């Protein structure tokens, strides 16, 4: 409706203009290019207006004619681009289903119709990879590095090729380059971390962890555990190089991030103890033991007070046990303290629940010390033999020392970062321990047997006396005094004692 109204108004205006020029009575005369003209002013004005319109129309047509080749070329380009995009789409579908021949065909079509499109290079590389032509794939990936929009994709392709060939150095270079380009890329972050752990680059790995945390690629608690483990690895390396100052700096930073990380706590306690700061060393162990008990804490804590009297040592051990009384290590601490104080019955009572539940050589050796103190070396022999045959505690550092290889530290960092533990659970369970009934029988005091040549009792025949004496020993009038244990009452406190006991048990057996 509006268009009709505009058309009618235009026609009215045109008609009015013609009428106006026709109604003019004046004349226009003049001379131009040697010609004289004279005519009504309306006719001449109308002729000029018509000539102006004709010029506009002719100019527009000439412009269209001049632009015609460009339009034809643009149309052809549009058709070619449509065909190329269609081929590119089908090629990517072929890559997704693993059809190498179809992917290669469509890659060639796309490259022929699309002028240097980044995705055509990617499709060509993928098609070459599916076809097994790694050289062509590498050329395609390398060409992608030239354009900023495809550089990251090219780096990933080259990284995957290097990893497949086992070229860790080249893979690390590509992964680090990609991580610098896009620090929020998950695959680049994981690759940099893994390759850094493999070659023991603890400092560089810590920096990558920090960047990953900034980009939310790793949770805050995992990042703290990873950094604590990596700092501890550096601390142990410095300690082995006799750089105790650097070791202490790194291990203190590790404990701020993870106070219960056993390798860091043990090394810090050792460094403080070597420097004469026994109280500070004990505080580190107590804090770590409270958060998460570990057998290494028992060993290092006892060594801090090895020069003190038995009463003071026992007091310190009980103090540590009170920090986490429900754990297994607390029972071991109580048993050690009881052995130091010659409280053999209490030590046996503390060890009984441990011996019934997957005991190790340490539990058996502590029981041998307690039973030996109560009943002498003969009573302890059976426990010495069991200690020699029992397995060691499978946890890393159970003997009080953490000495890992580079590969060991790498495994430890992964395990502690992901699961907050030092190692995965063992594949095989420790064998079942001793039953409570058997423990009571083996720890009960043995009464001495009456001599066979004792004088016959008056009123009883000699044969009868001999028969009784060989079947039921006569109870002695005075109980035998308990003999001191072989280690002088200090208890079996560390793995050196276990080795000594094991050697003695092998001689006996």
Explain this structure to me?
The termini are far apart. Mean pLDDT is 81; it is low at 452-493. Helix 9 (202-214) runs antiparallel to helix 10. The radius of gyration is 47 Å and the shape is elongated. By secondary structure, it is mainly alpha-helical. The protein has a two-stranded antiparallel ribbon with strand order 1-2. The chain is built from 23 helices and two strands.
The pLDDT mean sits at 81
Q: Please give the largest β-sheet.
A: 2 strands, antiparallel
Alpha-carbon distance between the termini? 117 Å
Number of helices: 23
Q: Spans with pLDDT under 50 lasting ≥5 residues?
A: 452-493
Number of strands: 2
Strand order of the largest sheet: 1-2
Helix-strand sequence: HEEHHHHHHHHHHHHHHHHHHHHHH
What percent strand? under 5%
Helicity range of the residues? over 70%
- Envelope shape: elongated
Assign the structural class, choosing from mainly alpha, mainly beta, alpha/beta, alpha+beta, or little secondary structure. mainly alpha
Using only CA atoms, what is the Rg? Answer: 47 Å
């Amino acid at each position: 409706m509006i268009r009709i109204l505009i058309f009618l108004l235009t026609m009215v205006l045109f008609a009015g203009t013609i009428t106006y020029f026709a109604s003019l009575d004046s004349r226009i005369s003049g001379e131009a290019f040697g010609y004289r003209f004279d005519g009504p002013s309306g006719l001449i004005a109308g002729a000029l207006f018509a000539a102006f319109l004709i010029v506009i129309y002719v100019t527009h047509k000439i412009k269209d004619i001049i632009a015609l080749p460009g339009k034809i070329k643009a149309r052809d380009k549009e058709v070619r681009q449509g065909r190329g995009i269609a081929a590119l789409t089908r090629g990517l579908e072929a890559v997704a289903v693993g059809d190498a021949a179809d992917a290669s065909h469509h890659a060639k079509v796309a490259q022929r119709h699309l002028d240097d499109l980044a995705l055509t290079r990617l499709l060509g590389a993928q098609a070459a990879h599916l076809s097994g032509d790694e050289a062509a794939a590498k050329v395609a990936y390398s060409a992608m590095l030239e354009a900023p929009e495809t550089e990251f994709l090219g780096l990933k392709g080259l990284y995957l090729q290097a990893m497949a060939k086992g070229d860790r150095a080249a893979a690390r270079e590509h992964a680090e380059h990609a991580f610098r380009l896009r620090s929020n890329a998950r695959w680049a972050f994981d690759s940099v971390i893994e390759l850094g752990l493999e070659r023991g680059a603890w400092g560089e790995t810590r920096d990558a962890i920090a960047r990953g945390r900034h980009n939310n690629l790793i949770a805050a608690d995992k990042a703290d555990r990873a950094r604590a483990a990596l700092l501890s690895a550096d601390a142990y390396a410095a300690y082995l190089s006799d750089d105790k100052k650097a070791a202490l700096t790194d291990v203190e930073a590790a404990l701020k991030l993870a106070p219960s990380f056993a390798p860091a706590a043990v090394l810090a306690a050792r460094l403080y103890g070597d420097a004469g700061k026994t109280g500070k060393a004990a505080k580190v162990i107590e804090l770590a033991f409270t958060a998460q008990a570990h057998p290494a804490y028992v060993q290092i804590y006892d060594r801090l007070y090895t020069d003190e009297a038995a009463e003071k040592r026992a007091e310190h051990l009980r103090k540590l046990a009170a920090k986490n009384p429900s754990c297994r290590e607390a029972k071991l601490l109580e048993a050690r303290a009881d052995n130091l104080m010659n409280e053999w019955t209490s030590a046996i009572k503390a060890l009984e629940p441990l011996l019934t539940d997957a005991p190790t050589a340490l539990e058996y050796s502590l029981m041998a010390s307690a039973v030996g103190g109560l009943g002498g070396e003969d009573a302890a022999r059976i426990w010495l033999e069991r200690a020699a045959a029992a397995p060691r505690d499978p946890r890393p550092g159970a003997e009080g020392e953490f000495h890992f290889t580079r590969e060991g530290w790498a495994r430890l960092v992964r395990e502690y970062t992901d699961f907050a533990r030092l190692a995965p659970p063992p594949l095989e369970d420790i064998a079942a321990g001793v039953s409570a009934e058997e423990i009571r029988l083996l720890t009960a005091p043995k009464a001495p047997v009456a001599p066979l040549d004792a004088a016959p009792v008056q009123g009883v025949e000699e044969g009868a006396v001999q028969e009784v004496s060989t079947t039921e020993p006569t109870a002695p009038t005075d109980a035998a005094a308990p003999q001191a244990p072989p280690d002088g009452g200090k208890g079996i406190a560390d793995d050196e004692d276990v080795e000594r006991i094991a050697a003695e048990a092998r001689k006996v057996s």
